[in-house]
Amino acid sequence: MTSEELEAAVLRLQDRQAIHDCLMTYSRAVDRLDRELLLSVYHEDAVDDHGVFVGSPEEFADWVVKMHSATHLSHQHCIFNYTIDLEGEVAHTEAYYMFVGLNRTGNPFAMSGGRYIDRFEKRSGRWAIAARVCVRDWAPLSEIPDVLDQASMTAVPLTPEIAELVRAGAQITRDRADPSYQRPLPARSPVVGR
Fold first, then answer.
1. Half-sphere exposure of residue 189, counting CA atoms within 13 Å on the CB side?
2. Where along the chain do its domains lie?
3. 19 — phi, psi (to 5°)?
4. Residue 63 phi/psi, 5° resolution?
């Protein structure tokens, strides 16, 4: 390996580590309801599409802190398997998550699992999320569904309008039509869910 190849390999590893750190920081920020830390993982012009919410980092931070504060006594967003496809100053990631929350009312536990599908961009030496699509792959349902309906896999109750917002967004598939294969990852126009 030449010194140039070694330097390039080290730079790729640094980029991958910075992206991994950003993914881990996201979970910590959401679980601690730390708005400032949460904003640090996004570029200012990013769009977060959580299915039930689509909007800017500022709008998302306000929404998610309010929603989790009202709905849960505590919660964890655990990130497991992840892939990072580096393409220069852009990276496409897919990170599997599991959410567990201790509810304030009703059933004590809320659970779901899915993926954060992100387009990261490196701007001025800083990797951060430029676009995020959150898809839900499973939830503890009372019966086996006929189709994988994203609106039925959320851990929070949905109004009919928000359920339609979820259904109009990214839907999971078990083939290359899945949103994780889209390059570049598109972001829906911001429409803040409530």
1. 0
2. 3-181
3. -70, -45
4. -65, -50
Listed residue (65, 167, 49, 192) closest to 118, CA to CA: 49
Assign 2 to helix, strand or coil: coil
Taking residues 37-66, report their average pLDDT. 96
Q: How far are the Cα atoms of 53, 66, 86, 123 from residue 61, in angstroms, in the given order?
A: 11, 8, 27, 21
Cross-sheet strand order for the sheet of 72-87: 54-55, 42-49, 126-138, 109-123, 90-103, 72-87
Give CATH for domain 3-181. Answer: 3.10.450.50
Residues 126-167 have pLDDT tens digits of 999 999 999 999 988 888 877 777 777 776 677 888 888 888
Identify the pLDDT of residue 194: 46
Q: How far is the C-alpha of 123 from the C-alpha of 159, rounded, in Å? A: 38
Structural contact between residues 172 and 148, judged by C-beta atoms closer than 8 angstroms: yes
Place of tokens 């012009």: 45
pLDDT tens for 81-92 read 999 999 999 999
Residues in CB range of 85: below 8 A, 6 or more apart:
91, 92, 93
Identify whether the C-beta of residue 129 lies closer than 8 Å to the C-beta of residue 120: yes
Q: Which residue has the tokens 């989790």?
A: 68
- How much is the pLDDT for 82? 97
